[in-house]
Write a structure and sequence with these properties.
globular, five-stranded antiparallel sheet, Thiol Ester Dehydrase, Chain A, 5 strands, 165 residues, alpha+beta, 32% strand
Length: 165
């Protein structure tokens, strides 16, 4: 993955900078465990929330750009590295950027940071484009590929959407 850190194996400065998009959330009680911290698997749900919000901000409409074309994507890999706890009612940002892009897959990288700036986790997911009829991997459509390459290469961002949901 970009940044020379191989994904989430180690924390280096690229995980703390260069995220063009952030989506503000607040920890709900049901997302915590008996210790009062966010249950570890919920960080993957946070990544999903950030991924969907980022795609929406980029102008990608799921029904139009995937389903209507007989396409979809699935998650081929997901990783999380935990750094500091989130607790009930903490505000946090899900920061998202495009990582490596291949013929039929691309990575999203995430930083999950408390609103006070404490870095809580970094994550990555690999999205695999699939044909909805065959269920097999297929090439990323040219328009989506160009969009992903453009935002990855330029560091451009649709906007920094720091709003609570």
């Amino acid at each position: 993955m970009p940044g020379g850190n191989g994904g989430v194996e180690g924390l280096t400065s690229p995980w703390l900078v260069d995220f063009p998009f952030a989506h503000r959330q607040r920890v709900r009680y049901g997302e915590t465990d008996l210790q009062g911290v966010v249950y570890y698997a919920n960080y993957l749900l946070f990544a999903e929330v950030g991924r969907v919000a980022y795609l929406r901000a980029l102008g990608v409409v799921y029904d139009r750009d995937f389903i209507a074309r007989g396409l979809d994507f699935t998650i081929g890999e997901a990783r999380v590295r935990y750094r500091a706890p989130l607790r009930f009612d903490d505000e946090y940002d899900i920061k998202v950027r495009v990582g490596a892009i291949r013929h039929s897959s691309w990575a999203f990288e995430y930083a999950i940071d408390r609103a006070d700036g404490v870095h809580c986790a970094e994550a990555s997911t690999i999205q695999v484009m699939i044909d909805r009829v065959t269920g097999r991997a297929t090439r990323i459509p040219d328009e989506l590929l160009k969009l992903l390459e453009d935002v990855r290469g330029s560091g451009a961002h649709p906007h920094d959407e720091r709003v609570s949901s």
